[in-house]
Design brief:
By secondary structure, this protein is mostly helical. The chain is built from eight helices and no strands. Keywords: Repeat, TPR repeat.
């Protein structure tokens, strides 16, 4: 059970505290609250890839695919080996109808982690979905 935290208690929070609270909100499907908390974490530490990839996941849940893709692009610049960034960028790009970009990102994710079953599943879904665009 999540504990309610007052604003004065949050004054002592660091970026990781906001990320942890955002993760709780995400699991509760309170995606807008999660986005706000990830944004606060990013404001405190804009070099942490997980803050961007996690916020991208929350953006996708509220169908803000451009914002999700933008966060993934930042994460990829920060860490070119971030599998989650490429995978989520692929999903966001596909949701925006950017088929070539989705393909490129899924390909990079697979190249980085060929044995990842989640990526393989996304790639299979990608090839099913692109039939809608051709």
């Amino acid at each position: 059970m999540a504990v309610s935290v007052s604003d004065s208690e949050r004054d002592d929070w660091g970026a990781e505290d906001y990320k942890a609270a955002a993760n709780v909100e995400y699991k509760k499907q309170s995606y807008l609250k999660a986005i706000d908390m990830y944004s606060t974490a990013i404001g405190m530490d804009s070099s942490n890839v997980a803050y961007f990839t996690n916020r991208a996941a929350a953006y996708m849940m509220v169908k803000q695919f451009e914002n999700a893709l933008s966060d993934c692009e930042v994460a990829m610049r920060l860490d070119p080996s971030s599998v989650k960034a490429y995978q989520r960028a692929g999903k966001a790009a596909l949701s925006l109808g950017k088929v070539n970009l989705a393909h490129d990102n899924f390909s990079k994710a697979l190249k980085l982690d060929a044995k990842n079953q989640n990526i393989s599943k996304d790639v299979c879904l990608f090839y099913c979905d692109i039939s809608c665009y051709v």
